[in-house]
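Folding Task

Wanted — backbone structure
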Amino acid sequence: MPVSSPPQLGLVCITVSKDIRYRTVTRKRLLEQSDDGQRKLLDDIYRDNLQTLDGALQYCRRNGIRLYRMPSSIFPFFDEDIGRAVMQPLVPALARTGRRATELGLRLVMHPDQFVVLSSDSPDVVANSVKILQMHADIMDLLEQPRSPWALLEIHGGKANRSGALVERIRALPDAIRLRLCLENDEYSYGADEIHDVCMRAGVPMVFDAHHHIVHDKLASYDDPSVAAMLAAARATWPVPAHQVVHISNGRDGFNDRQHSDLITTMPAAYAEAPWIEVEAKSKEEAIGGLQGWLRPVDPAKAGSDCS
């Protein structure tokens, strides 16, 4: 899997510094307001968060970051009638922001929250999952991002032993969702082999997470041969292999701890061949900065797994 340049590292949602911080609101607080108060509150939040997104794009440009994961709650309650009404006057501004990202060469992705469970055996949960996914797809459309895995919406497999239902429901999704959808392996329900099988059957790309993989399979090292093998298998699911996205995190209190550490001190040697890497560490931009030395070697025969 040769690559012509070092991997691009992705920033997840916010920074440790105050440079990128978004506003939100709870349902309880929103419902305490009058109808006009609710609209005013959401309008303020949407405008502030759109300004923050513009700032995030500039932050990424200044720091050489080319992938940015937007928060799933960037526009709270946009999946409700009131949110859609509040958004209407902002549609031209969203389009300008999306075009600016494209002009800057920045890739925008999203990771809908844990309430998205397409494999659930509850029709209500599935319907709500599709509703949430549609909201994310609508945001991508308003940002004029392509209906392709370049602007990916990544989710987990959800309820275990329901791969048949998961495949069926993915196939039935509207194009705005399905053409962007990617599935990620997890520590419990769908290991890397299992989610790869679902991706092949559903015709969607796989986002490989090496940390989830070693926790699920109880491996002792990122250099286990299965890591490189799954990286290659996942890449083959992408219509454009150079657009493959992977995740990296380290365990907080030990190698196999599922909780994310502040920084990334250990990288899979095979990840030198990964085109795009979302860095899922608590210290966000500090973790990305700490990986700059690791980025220099791109030949896996020369790239060690120790980032220190």
Remarks:
- The first helix runs from residue 27 to 31.
